Amino acid sequence: MNIRAFGIAALAIALCATVKAQTTNDGWVGIWHATVGGKPSALLTLATDAGALGGTFVLDIISDEGGQPHVIAAEPHVLLSPQVAGNTLTFQVKMRHLDGGSVVASFEVKRTAADKATIHCTDCGEDAPVVALVKGL
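The structure assignment produced for this chain is given below.
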């Protein structure tokens, strides 16, 4: 009887931990829009459909050709190892180089308000910008 009670208690603790983790991540769930100079530059989608936080990161490829900056392509990526710690989300994406090789880039998203954040590539060089994100509907 004690073994059964212990098993039920362990299951209850595991379920509580799962519910707490999902509740913590629920504030991140949604579609986050990035803009640079008033133009769309990226889209971060976050969901907990599979239980854990996951999603995609779509980078817009912008060209100045023709005098006006405009999106010429979109580069979708699946989030690798998304982790939430307090008001910070970190993840990686596998990106392709122009030479055909690939690299894993690390990103950090910091919440500044319920529907606002900043995103920064932490290993893309010193000139990598910090970009504002706004959570959309």
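Interim note for the steering committee: The domain at 27-136 is CATH 2.40.128 (Lipocalin). The two ends are 50 Å apart (CA to CA).
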